[in-house]
């Protein structure tokens, strides 16, 4: 199975679009206490975090993320460090940004950022949680499990599926990660890492077909 960098095989497009749309929480953006950017291979997290800061959606911005096998080559100094550098280079004041450089999964992103905010005596009753597009639902479910009292809004850099694929440059990697994040909706709820989320039958069917098509490198 081979693809060009930004082309979805025609026989899989409908299923990929189904998962892509499912993971977008479609939350309305409004001002909050803190913006939180979750580390990943996607620089779009830093872009949306910077844009929303300039739109005065929050006075404080926290980036969280160490490295993972999918990010070490892209962000050798660490995800949060590179995100911070991008934000500062695009006009966010350095003193408005906190970083956690230790988190290696979504649960740690939430827990370590919460501790970081407490350490700096920043009260966060509401947050915008920014992630790669297909991480939104899992990030939301994880946050509501670990930090149930906070009002959480999810956001991502606003790109279409095809534009996102072009920005990443590796279609199979993105589809594999979409499939992996879909699997984690049920699995992480079962393990107690996240609150349960409804998974429509059409999403389950699309997930199964993509697994059968060997988009499986990110399954757990």
TrEMBL record:
Domain DUF218, residue spans: 47-155
Pfam families attached to this UniProt entry: DUF218 (PF02698)
Gene3D superfamilies xrefs: HUPs
CDD domains cross-referenced by the UniProt entry: YdcF-like
Record-given protein name: DUF218 domain-containing protein
Species this protein is from: Micromonospora qiuiae
């Amino acid at each position: 199975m081979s693809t060009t960098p930004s082309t979805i095989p025609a026989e899989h497009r409908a299923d990929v679009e189904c998962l892509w749309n499912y993971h977008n929480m479609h939350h309305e953006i409004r001002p909050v206490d803190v913006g939180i950017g979750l580390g990943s291979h996607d620089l779009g997290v830093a872009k949306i975090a910077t844009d929303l800061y300039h739109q005065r959606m929050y006075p404080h911005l926290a980036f969280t993320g160490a490295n993972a096998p999918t990010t070490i080559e892209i962000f050798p100094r660490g995800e949060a460090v590179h995100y911070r550098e991008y934000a500062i280079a695009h006009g966010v004041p350095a003193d408005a940004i906190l970083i956690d450089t230790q988190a290696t999964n979504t649960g740690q992103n939430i827990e370590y950022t919460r501790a970081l905010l407490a350490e700096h005596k920043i009260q966060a009753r509401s947050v915008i949680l920014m992630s790669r597009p297909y991480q939104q639902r899992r990030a939301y479910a994880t946050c509501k499990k670990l930090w149930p009292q906070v009002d959480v809004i999810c956001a991502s850099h606003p790109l279409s599926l095809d534009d996102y694929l072009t920005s990443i440059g590796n279609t199979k990697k993105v589809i594999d990660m979409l499939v992996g994040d879909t699997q984690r909706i049920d699995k992480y709820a079962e393990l107690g890492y996240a609150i349960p989320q409804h998974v429509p039958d059409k999403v389950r069917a699309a997930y199964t077909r993509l697994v059968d098509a060997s988009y499986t490198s990110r399954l757990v």
